[in-house]
Amino acid sequence: MPRWVLIIYAALGGVLWMMPLFDILHAPSSALVATVAFFVAGMASIYAFQSPDPPRFWRALGTHEAMLGVPLALLTVSMLWAPNCDYWRGLLFYLLFPGITVVFAVALAYAITGTSWSYPKSTLAAIGGLVIVLGPLYDLGLHPQLYTYNHVFGGVLGPLYDEELAVRTGLFTFRGLTLLWAVGLFLVGTLLRIRARTGSFTGTSRGWYSSAGAGLIALCIGLSYAFAPSLGINTTSNQIQQALGGHHATEHFDIYYDPDDLSSEEVERLANKHEYRYAGLQERAQMDGPERVASYLYPDPNTKGALTGSRHTSLAPVWLPDPQIHMLRENVSRSFAHELAHVFSRDIGLPLINASWAVGLVEGWAVALEPPDGRPSSHEQVAVSVWSQDAPIGEELSDEVAARLSPWGFWTGRGAVSYTMLGSFVRYLLDTYGAGPLKEVYARANFEEVYGRPIEALADEWQQEIMSLPHVDRSSEDLVARRFTRPSLFEVDCPFYIPPHRRALREGREAANAGDTLQAYEQFERALTEQPHYAAAHNELAKLRLADGAADAVVEQLDTLDTDVRTPALNLRLGDAHALEGNLEQAREAYETARRDRPHYDHGGRAQLGLRLLIRDRPEVLRILVSAAPASEQANQLADQAGEQDPASPAVQAWAALRHMEAQEWTAAGARWNQFMAASEAASAEFSSVRRQEVRRAAHIWHAEAALHAGTYDQAYAAAQSAVEQFRAVGADNAAARARDLLGRIEWSSARAGSEVE
């Protein structure tokens, strides 16, 4: 064994120590070790097999496998300063990636040295390079997937943004295929050596057996590639479409979904939203969109991870021939417009990849074109971050923008910071200079050529613009504190690791959704055993107990928690429990605390807490709301509780309307909102005028949404217009912008239906 092999492996371990994310034993470091090990083991094996006294194949293989212990030991030592909570799974990746790659490399060297080729090392290097490059190009360039398996580096299991890797069965199948290649190459090397001695491949019985074995291996390899999608090695669009099962076509979209997850009414509503966002992007970006876009809506992370390799990350693979979007169904409202903006950018990107080399422009473009969501704008968030000494954005924004344009600068930084900053910058360019120059600069980021000034000068202009905003939403500071201080994948301890308490929470939620409350109780309690102050598990457990009528247990569970542990959701549960126990003052305090801790931009959440206050002395109403009955049944039960002379009647009507909306009973919901609006001024005296108006502003939005889906566009338009005016009157400009977006959707939907709103 040459000394340089040991030196390279030791140096590799030292380099990995200095690289965040790669300094622990896991999939990324295993892939990098496998890549180096292929060339090290392959070159050293060629040297050994060509020596005057060549070793036996198995001895060479055993030696190189043993040498993998050097980087393994160094990645184990790194646990002293780089915590690795997932060490044993990391060891599995190490066995699957470098462990199997070394078998492949030594077998390839054995086969090459059986020939009379003049440049065996160059041949091995060329083969390795082609496998490294061509494999991902085939997998990612021709398939709607974010994973790729490789005979050299082992595999990339999914996108960086997924906090949990999707370990699919295809990984094990593919590494088994790598071993098949290794066995086949070993047999080829054996046959070449037999021919060199005897002049014939089948000159000996060993030659006959080796020939038969090589033929069988070749057949198995061929069948594996032929049935790659079925084996989980690749995923095709047709395979995803068949797995989801549902299809709905619109003017510009083919929507693929799971019929067990979405009703036909829900699909129609989502289809309407798809087309509205399409029309809005055409107008905002001043460009035509693709003729057709495939929109894949996955019912849950497990299904999405199994099919695409990405459990949570929404994606629009613009490099594929057909425009398409992949996202969880629950993320449509949050992600669809962003991903559709990526689809629109295909025509202005670089050839082949249909995107910009500057990742910051790619994501900044999509963020800038997102519709308002009611939260503080990207301009406000960046401005507040610069003002705050604790936030991660420095005062020289030109340097920050330039650094985050490149892939490395963008992905290694904190995601929320990179997305928001570049989104704000691109939005400034769009608003100030129009869509034309932005589309021209998109592909190559050649700012000086297009805008006539370098990016630093443009960033200075942008900084002056956002630092002179006339006013900033008071929620901005809290939002920035939550989003911008969240560490990136390169900063966290134990990346890709989901601790036991979070796994238990996930399993408990799945059990609760399936109706298995016994299993749900067990999992939530297990989560709290692992992490006693885990707020999300406390919330789910309290919700189950309230549904079972155990309000006293909820009071005992939550009343002793530290106040800094109690989230708004927990204070809501505690308020419900106190109200059901008849402790009205404690209930009021809990509801008020929950409302105080809700972000100011969460007008709907704050309004619902106001409605809760109004019914805290109505346990019969509250029992309906916390029950496990279906939303439609709750709505009907609540309607029966709303007496005309009852001071709490408006609040009960509002809750009935919200439950009708949850059940997608839009006409009934609209009728309830009409009743609420007519009676809400008669709310109880202790419910202040300010609080009443807060509820009414949110109710206008809810009413507009219900009326829109019910097809009563005049009512929807009037409600949305009232919301715009009322939000603007109190200075809630971002909420008003969101209401204006809803207003535009109502007008658009009405026009498509052949009617005009008045």
Query: Can you count the beta strands?
Result: 6
Q: Looking across the biggest beta sheet, what order are the strands in?
A: 3-4-5-6
Helix content: 55-70%
Structural class: mainly alpha
Low-confidence stretches: none
Distance between the termini: 85 Å
Radius of gyration: 31 Å
Overall mean pLDDT: 91
Question: What would you say this structure looks like, in words?
Answer:
By secondary structure, the protein is mainly α. Helices cover 65% and strands 3% of the residues. The strands form two sheets. The protein has a four-stranded mixed beta sheet, sandwiched between helices. Strands 1-2 form a two-stranded antiparallel sheet. α10 (264-285) links the parallel β4 and β5. α3 (57-67) packs antiparallel against α5. The longest helix has 30 residues, at 169-198. The N and C termini lie far apart (85 Å). The model has no long low-confidence stretch (mean pLDDT 91).
Summarize the structure.
65% of the residues lie in helices and 3% in strands.
Q: What attributes does this structure have?
A:
single chain; 758 residues; mainly alpha; 4-stranded mixed β-sheet; two-stranded antiparallel ribbon; 35 helices; 6 strands; 3% strand; elongated
Fold topology:
Layout: H1 3-17, H2 27-49, H3 57-67, H4 69-77, H5 87-112, H6 120-142, E1 148-150, E2 154-156, H7 169-198, H8 205-226, H9 237-244, E3 246-249, E4 253-257, H10 264-285, E5 293-298, H11 301-308, E6 324-328, H12 332-344, H13 359-368, H14 378-387, H15 397-405, H16 407-412, H17 415-433, H18 435-442, H19 447-451, H20 455-467, H21 476-483, H22 500-513, H23 517-530, H24 535-547, H25 551-558, H26 568-580, H27 584-597, H28 603-614, H29 619-626, H30 631-641, H31 649-662, H32 666-679, H33 689-710, H34 713-729, H35 733-752
Parallel strand pairs: 4-5, 5-6
Antiparallel strand pairs: 1-2, 3-4
Helix pairs in contact: 1-2, 1-4, 2-3, 2-5, 2-6, 3-5, 5-6, 5-7, 7-8, 10-12, 12-13, 13-17, 14-17, 14-21, 15-20, 17-18, 22-23, 23-24, 24-25, 24-26, 25-26, 26-27, 27-28, 28-33, 29-30, 30-31, 31-32, 32-33, 33-34, 33-35, 34-35
